[in-house]
Design brief:
alpha+beta, four-stranded antiparallel sheet, globular
Length: 85
Amino acid sequence: MMTAIFVFIKCELGHANDVAADMVDNVEYVSEVYSTSGQYDLLAKFQLPRDMDIGTFVTKAVQTRANIRDTFTVITFSPFLPSGS
């Protein structure tokens, strides 16, 4: 069983595409990365093993990547899926 987390990422100016490409190519457990408008540049979804420490994962695997200035993590609980899924 996996835990989904979402991490909003603020990048150094001009580097959002580089960060997104790096995330999808090199960060384990990433399932999707979206460009966004507003305060953050990217939104990344990760599927983590239930026994993994989320704080350690974000600080070591995400925040240390090149050209990332700030993150905001959303931890999820139960998904709601359309019927028939």
